[in-house]
Every structure is written in C-alpha cells, then in structure tokens.
From TrEMBL:
The keyword Cell inner membrane does not apply. It comes from Roseateles chitinivorans. The lineage of its organism: Bacteria, Pseudomonadati, Pseudomonadota, Betaproteobacteria, Burkholderiales. This is Succinylglutamate desuccinylase. Its cofactor is Zn(2+). It comes from the Bacteria. Coiled coil: none annotated. Residues 22-120 form the Succinylglutamate desuccinylase/Aspartoacylase catalytic domain. Keywords: Hydrolase, Metal-binding, Zinc. GO terms for molecular function: hydrolase activity, acting on ester bonds; metal ion binding. The keyword Hydrolase applies. InterPro entries: AstE_AspA_cat, N-alpha-Ac-DABA_deacetylase.
C-alpha cells in the first residue's frame, strides 16, 4: 500500500443539522468497524436530502458521523490498531489511534439523547437490531429508558431483535480474566472489565438510549437501504421529520426476540466447528456445535440459536454466542 493509504487520518468528519425548534438530539453513526459500510452511503443520502430540501428537519439536532473509524475504513478492515467498539471511553493518555478517536467520539455521544449505530456482519443473514437492558438499578448497566429503546428497536423494521449483550459479555470477561495474560496491551484490554463497552453501552452510561442496527452481511446490496430507512424511521419516531418521509415498518410483522446468554471463546487454532454455521442457525439442546483441539465436544446447553460464529477467531477471542427466546415484552 502507498504511504497515503496507510497514513493515519488526522480528523473525524462530523455533520450536524440544527433545527430552529427545540427537540431531541439524535446521533447516527456508521463504520465504527471500517469494513461495515452499509450506513456510510445511507448517511450521505440523508444529508443530501436535507441539503436539497427533499427532507425537512422540523426540530431537534441531527448529528451524523458517516465514518467513525477512518483508519480502519481506509484500510478496508474491521480495526485500525484495535477494536474501537470495545473498551470505549475517554483516554487521558491515548495509546493508539482508536483511543484518539474515542476522545473525540465520546463527547459527541454524551451530548446526544438518542443514538442509532449502523453495523453489518460477516455471515449471510437478515438484518437485526440489538437493544440494551431492561430498566434496572444494577451495577453493570443501570438503565431507565426501556420503553423508549424498545419502541426504537421496533420502529426500524427488522424481524429479529436481540438483547443481553453486556451481561453475556461480562460472563466471558470473568472467565477470560482467569487466564494468564501475555503482557500485551491487547490482552490487558481484553481482560479489562470495561472491555464489553462500545458505542451503545457508553451512550446508556451517559443517560441516553440507543440501538445497534446490524444491516445484514457486509456485502448485502440491501444493507444500505436497510440503513437508510432506519435513519428516516428513527427521525419520524422522534418527531424530527414528517411521517410521510418514509414508509413505516409493518406493525403486524412477526418479530423474533432473542436473549444472548453465553459467549464461547476459541482456545486454540485447532478448535473447529462441527459444520459451517451462520448467525441465527437453530441449535437444539445438547447439539454438538464444535470440538476442542483435545477432542472435547462443545455442546449447546439449551435450544435456541447460534450468533456471530467466527471461523477465523483468534485464540482467546469470541468464537460464537448462543441465544434463546426472550420473555421480554416490547410493545
């Protein structure tokens, strides 16, 4: 690659539209992972509509960051120097490029009321939304916007919604912390209790609410349209644009609600899956998911679905997640 390609970007592009009437402060982000680009063009499309007058901002403040990690995006890969969507916080003494981005990004998040974070995933599959915890006063992720966040998750229009990210990730971190580290900063970050905190978790910690919208597989040609409609539907939900700006999601569509309950790390490069799994493939109780390097079977403790299976996971990293039907009521 040329020096121009590999040189570290020196700024973050942030676009803001300030309505003349008071209202919600919405932040829309994309390319937190550099190769997840469905939201990039969608944000640019919405900005063009606002500039041309095809879309009118009635009230509130709309902030959009089409490329949150410009280094990873320039390199066309998930990370620049590390995963920006882990251990996200202000860093008084930044150690890498993502720390420097976090120092700019976190204040924008904290200044917002609502966030829509646009992502995509490796394996083929339909789009889905991820929402946060139920209202609680616990230590892990205290929260008080369950109803508003549930309405947002329903409004974007996916047929599948997933909860339970941070609590499940915390279980994995507890087990990971018991392993001996190699002294590297990467390992230290992975064993940090804060490691599961990304954009949406940080948003909730500052008093707002949000969802992650996984717009489909990275190369899915429908991904940008999913992202575009989600932005408009969020604006309509918040009363920031007119309802006729976009067709609403079908309120009668069936929605599968799942709860993550387990994350399994890959221990060795010789750990292998039983077959080629795709996200949300059904799993029966006791079914063999994979086999460890020493021949130990990896079995599903409950029936449900496999989520984010990663054939290329490095040892010590997430290999796959497990989800089961949730008893949460969204409406």
């Amino acid at each position: 690659m040329s020096d121009a390609t590999t040189a570290h970007p020196t700024h973050l592009r942030v676009h803001q539209f300030a309505g003349l009437q008071p209202g919600p402060k919405l932040l829309v982000t994309a390319a937190v992972h550099g190769n997840e680009v469905a939201g990039v063009g969608a944000i640019q499309r919405v900005m063009a509509m606002l500039d041309e007058g095809a879309l009118t901002l009635r009230k509130g403040t709309l902030t959009m960051i089409p490329i949150v990690n410009p280094l990873a995006h320039r390199l066309q890969r998930r990370e620049g120097e590390r995963n920006l969507n882990r251990n996200l916080r202000v860093n008084p003494i930044p150690q890498d490029f993502e720390d420097r981005i976090a120092n700019r990004l976190c204040p924008w998040i904290a200044a917002s009321d609502v966030m829509l974070d646009l992502h995509s995933f490796n394996n083929p599959g339909p789009a889905f939304a991820m929402l946060g915890p139920r209202d609680n006063d616990g230590d892990l992720e205290p929260f008080r916007h369950q109803a508003a966040e549930s309405a947002l998750a329903l409004a974007v229009g996916t047929s599948r919604i997933v909860e339970g990210w941070l609590s499940t990730y915390a279980l994995g971190l507890t087990r990971r912390a018991e392993r001996a580290g190699d002294g590297s900063r990467r390992m230290a970050l992975q064993q940090d209790p804060h490691y599961g905190v990304g954009t949406t978790e940080y948003m909730r910690s500052t008093g707002g609410y949000c969802i992650t919208l996984e717009c489909g597989q990275h190369a899915d040609p429908q991904g940008p349209e999913v992202a575009f409609k989600a932005i408009l539907r969020t604006l309509v939900l918040l009363g920031m644009v007119a309802p006729e700006a976009v067709e609403p999601a079908d309120p009668k569509r069936p929605v599968e609600l799942l709860q993550l309950y387990e994350v399994v790390d890959r221990d060795s490069v010789d750990d292998r899956f039983e077959r080629q799994w795709a996200s949300f493939d059904p799993i029966a109780e006791g079914q063999r998911i994979g086999t460890r390097a020493d021949g130990t079977p990896v079995l599903a403790p409950f029936g449900g679905r496999i989520v984010f299976p990663n054939n290329n996971a490095e040892p010590g990293h997430e290999w796959f997640y497990l989800a089961k039907p949730s008893d949460r009521v969204l409406a």
